[in-house]
Amino acid sequence: MATGNLNRQESALEYEEDLDGATMSLVDHLEELRWRIFKSLIAIAVMSIIAFIFRTEIIKFLAAPLPKMAEQLTHGQLVVTGIMEGFTVMLLVSIAVGVVLALPVILYQAWAFISPGLYQHEKKYAVPFIFIGLILFAMGVSLGYFVLRYPIEFLVTFAASSFVELVTANSYFTFVAFFILAFGLVFEIPLVLTFLAKVGLVSGETLKRKRATMHIGMWIAATVLTPGADIYSPIFLGVAMSFLYELSIIFIKYFVKPETS
Are 11 and 120 in contact (CB under 8 A)? Predict the structure, then answer.
C-alpha cells in the first residue's frame, strides 16, 4: 500500500512538473510564436537566395520533362509573355525551392513551439515523426518528378493536330509545382493515419480488415487520376499508394499502443 501511494505521488509530481514547464502566459506564447515564424522566414529567405543563385540549373532541371515537340517554335525554351514575367517566374520558382529546402528548419521551429505543451511521453514521438515526415515528403517529390513527364506529354500532345502549343513559363512551372507538391503531401498519408489512430478515429485492425478492398480501390483511383494514356503512371501511383497503406499499418503498430483497462 505504501509503495502504491509513493508511485501515485511520484506520478502526480511528474504531472505537475510537466504543467509547470508548459505554463506560459498568452503574451509569452505570442512572443514565442513571433520568433519561431521569424526564424522560419529567415531560413526560407536564405534558401531562396541560394536557389536564385542556381536558378538556371533549377529551371533546366524542372523543364527536362517537357517533350521536345513543344519546343519546335521556341528553340528549346519556354515562352514568357511580358517584360517582367521571366524575372517573376524565376523568383517564384526560387521561393518555392527555398521553402522545400527550409522545410527541416520550419518543422523544427513548429516542434519547438508546441513541445513545451506536450507531456514527456508525447515528446519522444515528435523527432521521429519529423524525420520520417521529411523522408516521406522527399520520396513523394522524387516520384512526382519522375512521373511528371507522362501527364505533361499527354497534355502537350493531346491537341497537337489542332493547335500550336506555346508553353508559357508561368503555366508550366505552376503545373509542375502543384503536381510535385501534391505527391509530396500524399506521401504524408501514413503520418495522418497514425495520428488518427492515436486519437482513436481509426485502428490498425480496421485497416487490416479492409486491406483487400482498399488496395483495389486505390488501384482503380490510380488509373482514373492519371491523365495520360500510358501504362506507367497508373502503375507508379498504384504501387506508391499500396506501399503507403501498408506503411500506415506498420506505423500504427509501433507508434500507437493499445489502450489497457
Answer: no
